[in-house]
Every structure is written in structure tokens, then in C-alpha cells.
Amino acid sequence: MKSISRRTAAAAALVVLGAGALTACGNRTSDTAAAPAESCVDTSGDTIKIGSLHSLSGTMAISERTVRDSVELAVEQINADGGVMGKQIETVVEDGASDPAVFAEKAQKLITSDCVAAIFGGWTSSSRKAMLPVVEDNNALLYYPVQYEGLEASENIFYTGATTNQQIVPALEYLKEQGARSMYLVGSDYVFPQTANRVIKAWAEANDVEILGEDYTPLGSTDFSTIVNKVRTADPDAVFNTLNGDSNVAFFREYTNAGL
Length: 260
Prior knowledge:
There is one protein chain. The protein is α/β, with parallel strands linked by helices and 260 residues long. 43% of the residues lie in helices and 17% in strands. It contains eight helices and eight strands. Strands 2-1-3-4-5 form a five-stranded parallel β-sheet, sandwiched between helices. Strands 7-6-8 form a three-stranded parallel β-sheet, with helices on both faces. Helix 6 (191-206) links the parallel strand 6 and strand 7. Helix 1 (2-21) crosses helix 2 (61-80) and helix 3 (100-112) runs parallel beside helix 4 (125-137). The longest helix is centred in the N-terminal third of the chain and has 20 residues, at 2-21. It is elongated. The model is unreliable at 1-12 and 15-33 (pLDDT under 50).
């Protein structure tokens, strides 16, 4: 059921873009402080172009290739059903390479050179924040596919995933109901895990739950022996994991090998 709902959500997002694409994205009448770049989106033909910008290489590819596949599946299904407002969707695929700077560069290319009506992409909050000024400066559209830490809102971004109060806090409440009175925090060293863990620590303090440790590791890390040993020594009731990408494979392997 989860895979069906994700396909449905992706298809719905692509249908929504049709309305924005056909109203000349690039004319922000409410912004008088700075005129947005003139849009090169062409809706006069039989097709509408969208950008698919995900990490197809690097540490985040293990997660983001599946989102790329979901977008392609949604496009295939929508085109087979007549397209958006009678127009077929054409996808321009780019690789963010697990690097926020590359995401910003590719987003600029998709908007100004490929003239896409919207970009579907990003996973880490770092990649989203790198693309944010690009889409705002060009008054373009970005559909961001996964949960995030909140504390950000842009008229140019559709945040389709849950925030901390919708996902993490309910998980913490569940752990408390199961009797967890102590936790250890393990995460990747970037925006989402750090912000999420601030929320977790505030919740823990208010709910008399002890945080026994907090460790971060760079994206792409594969050596978790030290962290796992610290977790085993601390002996928490639960480990809250905000690692991203293929680091999870190495972490869970080490975690299991340690008998946890």
C-alpha cells in the first residue's frame, strides 16, 4: 500500500504543475522589490518539460534513484492517460551527484537552459537549501519529495513530506508509550539531523527521557565501530537514527555485528 500511495502522490504533484506551467511561471506580480528572471517556459506546443534532479551517483544515490524512478513512472502513467491538460510531459534528467553545489548548478541549467516548467528533486535539506535561491530568483517551481525539518517556507517550493511535528514527535510519543526512558541519537552531519535532534532533545527534556549520547558523521561515512561501541556502552532503551544515504547500510551492519 505504501508504494501505491507514493505513486499516487507523485502523479498528483505532476497534475498540479500543469496549472502553474500554463500560467506563465515567471511573472510574480506581488514582488515589487526585485523583478524575477523572465521565464523561457514554452507551453505553446504539445509537450511540457519538467526537470528530474536527483542524486544518481554518490552516497545519496541509494535513496534518490528510487524517487527518480517514481517520477518517471508517474510521467509514464500520466502521458498514457492523455497528459496534463492535453499536453505530454517530457522529462529532463540531471544528476545532483550528492553535492549541494551541483544541485544548485543543475537547477539553474534546468530552469534557464532546458526551460522546464518545474523541477522534481532533492533529498537532503542541504540540497534543497542550495536550490532555494535558484528557484526563487527565477520564480520557478521545485517539488521537494521527502520529510524535512520544517522552519522554512517558500512560495516556490512544494514541500510534500512530513515535518518533525508530523513524523518525529509521534514516533517519540510511541517510544514513550513502549516504555523507553533513554535514547541515543545518531545522525548525518548536516541540517536535517541536527535540527531534528534539537527537537528531540527539547521533547526529551519535557517528557523526562534521558539522552545518553549524540553523534554525527559525514555523509557517506562507512566506519561506525566507534559510534556503535558508544551506543552499546550507553545501553539506551532506543536509538533514534537520522543517518542518510548508504551510511545506513554500514551502520546497521556494524550495529547487528555488535549484537544490538
